[in-house]
């Protein structure tokens, strides 16, 4: 942990190493960073046990075991000073598989401030690197956590007798964290495009323009949903969810001069008619709606129709499709700290305005962050923004994420995806790449190409370096199948990633089996006890 007297160490590692290097800053503020003096300075965080062990090469490390919760690990108390920047690094591994490990600080104001994360593996050591800017002197506890929750299955027969040796299978069906990709109309008739999308395992899609008002009603009263209907049918066939983008957008941003020419009353009528048309058509078929796109940056409707225009449109949207999540959707909040209209507190003001409108007081309104990075991503700023927005307790997604061209485009893509995936407030990432073949020709995909899109593949749907990054990360975070057996008490315990799962229990002595859904949520850190009768 770096001090104010330590020059910053710019080195990092993205590889999983057999043996980790020595701590940066020689441990900095941490007491006994190499565990040369046993557990001096370290304590258990939560429950469980900790012990110092030695690797084959003589390195000391600490192991946390008999853990019941994600945060049952190790802890050290620190005294942090106002106005200083603190950097952090550590080497971690887990006992099996791959999973996100985060390091956090707990203080009197914030019980869980994530300062760094990494996808750790078994059998090798991965480097976490992060940091925090302190705006008040404080005592804090530094601890680690894993993005999982312990599940405890208790298996018995119909008479209540515990069954030892029951075979357990837990299959992840829908992870809580969603990764999706935007598409365009050519996917309807381009087999290579279809095969590429399905092979990637994306759980969500969104249409670039095909659900926008100007696409569906270019001329007043002449609606055409042929293209979005066909696109939606394709994704329904393959079990991929779809986000509705978007119901309304600033009229000065759309090529719809006929709408701007309408008197105010007729404009209101047209707005209501548009909502009733698209939302009734796709209600129950999309998981979310960007109701008024970019309505913090742009306010043509409010200027014309009054300051509560967006509020009224969100209320109508909630009535038309009550099961879908309604989103705000804005740009530059994460990407450009200098864009004052969209700093997190301004975004929260708009959220509070909508949620205080009569009829929307208890409505979940999600925060969409477009995340179009055209330059070097400022990860500490990104993390800080997510921390602030996360305090709203509303869902957060990156909705149109891409990275501008440059020699390290793929590297920046990986950095941001890892940062966002590991943040506890974020629930999904929607990639916003160029659409092959039109956007991803040779003249476009060169670093100095003339096209502005981030492409994942070339025109033949062969991966570019950015596509390799996405494949690698999705493989790291892919759906897992856990298998095991109940003990003499009829119990099977395991750390399970947040999301929807399917549990199958087989009693080999009778051949009886049962399958049931299992939803692992983050709303409680206690172990999830599930009783199963077979």
Automatic annotation (TrEMBL):
Quote the InterPro entries the UniProt record gives. Answer: CenC_carb-bd (IPR003305), Galactose-bd-like_sf (IPR008979), GH (IPR017853), GH10 (IPR044846), GH10_dom (IPR001000)
- Sections of the chain in a coiled coil: none
Citing just one GO molecular function, the answer is: endo-1,4-beta-xylanase activity
GH10 domain location: 164-473
- Which Gene Ontology terms describe the biological processes this protein takes part in? polysaccharide catabolic process
Query: Which domain of life does this protein belong to?
Result: Eukaryota
Keyword check for Repeat: yes
UniProt lineage: Eukaryota, Viridiplantae, Streptophyta, Embryophyta, Tracheophyta
Pfam families in the record: CBM_4_9, Glyco_hydro_10
Keywords assigned by UniProt? Carbohydrate metabolism, Hydrolase, Polysaccharide degradation, Repeat
Under which name does UniProt file this protein? Answer: GH10 domain-containing protein
**What family does the Swiss-Prot or TrEMBL record give for this protein?**
Belongs to the glycosyl hydrolase 10 (cellulase F) family.
